[in-house]
Amino acid sequence: MNCEVCQLKELEVEHFEIREVLRCILHTILFHRALGLVRPKDVDLELFEITYVQCGDMELERKIDEKIDQFIDRVEKHPNKKNQICLSFYEVKNKHATWFTNKVERLFWEHWYINLNVMQHPKTPSGKSHHSKLVVDPGVEARGARRAALEASLRDVLFQIIKFVNEKKDHVPSIPNVEGIPFPYEITISSSSDSAFGMDMFKRMLQTGHPTMLS
Amino acid sequence: MASYHGNTASEPAKMEQIITEFFAKSLRIILESRCPYVSSRNYSSEQVLLSPSPPSSSCSSSSFGLRDKSFNLALRDCPAALDNIDFWWQSNLEPMIVDVILVQRSGNWDPMNYLPKRGFARTFSGKEGYYYNSENDEFGYEIESEKIIERWVLHYESKQSGDHGSGVMGNKRAACTSSHALYNKSTLLLRSLYATVRLLPAYKVFRDLISSAQIRAYNLGHRVSSFVEPFTHREEADMQHFVFSPVDTSCGRLCLSVLYCSSVLDISSEPSTPISPQVIHEYVGSPMAEPHKRFISAPVSQSSPSSPPFGRYHSWNYDIYKVSPSSVNLSPSSTYSESCASMPKQLSHRFPPASLPNHTASETPPVHMKDPNFHEYWPSPTFSPSPSPSPSPSPSPSPPAYIPDSHILKALLRSESAPVGIPISRLSTLPKMPKNQLLPLSPSMGTSGRRVSKTDGCSGLYETGSMVDKLFTSAKDEAGKFSGVKQSSNSSSTKSFSRSPSRFSFQDHFDDSEFSGLFITNDDDLTEPSTRPGSFDQPGGLCPSGRSQDTAVGALICMLKKAPPLRPDISITTNLVQGSKP
Q1: What is the pLDDT of residue B46?
Q2: Burial class (CB in 10 A: 0-12, 13-18, 19+), B425
Q3: B351-402 pLDDT, tens per residue?
Q4: What's the 3-state SS for A65-82?
Q5: How do residues B106-153 score in pLDDT, each as one tens digit?
Q6: To the nearest whole angstrom, how far is the Cα of B250 from the nearest Cα of chain A?
Q7: Pick from B375, B373, B308, B371: nearest CA to B344
Q8: A54 and chain B: CB distance < 8 Å anywhere?
Q9: Which residues form the Autophagy-related protein 13 N-terminal domain (chain B) (predicted)?
Q10: Is A158 close to B245, i.e. CB distance below 8 A?
Q11: Which of residues B160 and A14 earns the better pLDDT score?
């Protein structure tokens, strides 16, 4: 089984947009991978005119919100860095209890990399008199243009997900007869400053033992 | 079909079944999110049983009992989609083309009664298919233009495979794999379809149509067929093409694609007519709508020409008792009319609205004041004309017909909207009005004032606007409970009425403490009700025993106007000034 990797288009977001953007992307991916019985739930974004679909699984919703909270905390702790969320699907390998470890091996068959560049608000220059001109907001028009551009980019990302899901089907395991998400998954967060930012993917490549097919 | 596990029995049939169900499911997903009519039908039919939710939003709730769970995607049943699919597609694998049409209309049309006409479309092979035609002349609108904003094409390309496998078992295994794989991949494809229909521009138009309270100049329709004329180059240039990856099987490939117009958002962003709440002045039964059913009273001619005659009357005009039965309305409601004290122009709005239950004109006997008891002349608190100009079922917002004393008394006592009396002691603190300077409770009082007032002897109920202003000012100062006419402290029958919709009690008509409004009466008026033009010829006075006639009349007038007007002060002042003019 191949492990497919999808590097989604990088999005420039403001701090307050992180939650909505991540929810939209993560739920869209999971909706396409929750191949058990689902009751789809349409969700309208508040910041953008986009409607995405959730699986309708409250537990899944809670987990995603937790991860998003972690991501936001990380962004606050590591500003001015590119941050990445990786959503990975795997199969549990047969446990091989060894003398040294009981670690369960996971066989990843798909990785989704969500790249966000969180914009920081410009700071007021220090040491200047109070008469100096403060760094001002870019303006309503500029913000509107940026928001529209982000919405278009987000829509592109969603279409990118749909295309990827449709083009790559052979690597998906058989769908068990369960509700919700039949495949285990994990969500990891990394930043560009982390040494593991690029290594994380490399490690997974080694784990899968197959050449990575980038979309 | 929660899962599809292949077995060795009739794989081609299973695959055909999968494909058939895939087509049905796809059509359902498309129509649910494109056609308001289809969506609303589905919504309305299910909301009785299921928890309410927007038609475009499939809530993940176990309350959705009717759900199609095929391909692990639980959707609400869509009868319209089933109608389209049942007769249309059978087993000959014809393509299914779903056109989503944006219809722009002009002229008068009733969106509430809009029902897309159901018509037929012939397929290339001669099959007929239902479609929803937006053309609907019977509702009086004209179609300006129709534009196909989306075209969904589903088809299964079967292929003749020369390789039939190495044997029966080989064939069966390949078929099993094929049908199983087909099912899994179809499941994935339907997920993508479900997400895609919500990302395309037409979805926004759909949501605007089903959620907006505004009247739109456009609507969405659809057409399902197996053969359509291809787009022209010009049309296709404006459209974008999105092709889903086909699902390959050993017997063929399942293909799904969409041509969509991205400029549909420009049409949907056109200004629309908001359906804003509007005050309906001429509702059925309103005096303005049915002037012939207004009070029959003489001094109508003295009414301001700009205002309807009825507007000059208070609800509880003396003349009510001469009104024909058809113009009488009696409501058992205990809430007294606020319009009793309303201004003339507002009276027409405020007369017994449709909310008045039970009693209709046909049920009301002719008004005839048999009982001289003062209570009879009080406007029934059951008249509860609310400030809202809702249409009244009664033919005329006229005061009640015959009202038994006890009924009136009880109604008045339990009224909540009637004015509340204020103690006489309070009245004494009010500026004293000279005799013959009576301020009507409402502009309609002017008419009654004319009746009760004489040019000389009878104190008119009218006062100049300045005096009214003063009184209103002082009245408002009185705890804001009333804004009506102040009552002369000289009158023992000082009554007050409130324009506030509360606390009208008539435990004792002559208990001034029960009134919250002020009513300036003049003894002369109260003593000579019969001299008033158009006054009802009631044998008895309005006063209970022990009170002067004038006081009773004044009290009656006060009672007649006990409901505060919709728009206090201004109109009263205006009409008072008008009424004061000879």
Answers
A1: 43
A2: exposed
A3: 444 444 444 444 444 444 444 444 434 334 444 444 444 444 444 444 444 4
A4: HHHHHHHHHHHHHCCCCE
A5: 655 555 555 554 444 444 444 444 444 444 544 455 667 888 999 999
A6: 15
A7: B308
A8: yes
A9: 19-261
A10: no
A11: A14
Per-residue pLDDT, B489: 44
Q: How many angstroms separate the CA atoms of B128 and B225, rounded?
A: 8
Q: How much is the ipTM here?
A: 0.84
Collect contacts of B509-512 with beta carbons under 8 A, ≥24 apart: B509/B374, B509/B375, B509/B378, B509/B544, B509/B555, B509/B559, B510/B374, B510/B543, B510/B544, B510/B546, B510/B547, B510/B551, B510/B555, B511/B421, B512/B421, B512/B422, B512/B423, B512/B424, B512/B427
8 Å CB contact between B514 and B505: yes
Closest-approach residue (CA) in chain B for A159: B196
Q: What's the rounded mean pLDDT across residues B553-571?
A: 77
Please report the pLDDT score of residue A66 as a whole number: 94
C-alpha B212 chain-centroid distance: 15
pLDDT of residue B546: 54
User: B-chain residues within 8 Å CB-CB of A172?
Assistant: 184, 188
Q: Scanning every residue of chain B, which has its alpha carbon at the shortest distance from the alpha carbon of A51?
A: B198
Amino acid present at B529: P
For residue B11, the model assigns a pLDDT of 79
Looking at the DSSP bridge assignments, the partners of residue B519 are B495
User: Measured between CB atoms, which of A49, A53, A177 is closest to B194?
Assistant: A53
Residues in Cβ contact with A125 at an 8 Å cutoff, skipping those fewer than 6 apart: A132, A135
Flag if B192 and A32 touch (Cβ within 8 Å).
Answer: yes
Residue B64 · residue B78 · CB < 8 Å: no
Angle at B538 between CA B365 and CA B463, to 5 degrees: 110
The single residue listed with the structure tokens 């029966």 is B168
The angle formed by the CA atoms of residues B79, B84 and B87, to the nearest 5 degrees, is 115
Chain B environment of A169 (Cβ under 8 Å): 184-185, 188, 245, 247
Partner residue opposite A38 with nearest CB, options B61, B73, B247 = B73
Classify B523 as helix, strand or coil. Answer: helix
Determine phi and psi for B218, rounding to 5 degrees: -145, 165
Is A51 touching B (CB cutoff 8 A)?
A: yes
- A79, A119, A136, A139, B254 from A125: Cα distances, Å: 18, 18, 11, 19, 61
How many Cα neighbours within 13 Å face the side chain of B70? Answer: 18
Q: How confident is the model at residue A152 (pLDDT cuts 50, 70, 90)?
A: very high
Cβ contacts of A177 on chain B, cutoff 8 Å: 2-3
Place of tokens 């999005």: A11
Nearest to B535 by CA among B468, B447, B443: B447
How many A×B Cβ pairs under 8 Å?
96
pLDDT for B267 equals: 61
Quote the pTM value.
0.55
Contact B245 A52 (CB under 8 A): no
String of b and e for B499-511 (b: at least 16 CB within 10 Å)? Answer: bbbbbbbbeebbe
B→A interface, C-beta within 8 Å? 2-3, 56-61, 64, 67, 69, 72-75, 180, 184-185, 187-189, 191-192, 194-196, 198-199, 203-204, 207, 242, 244-245, 247
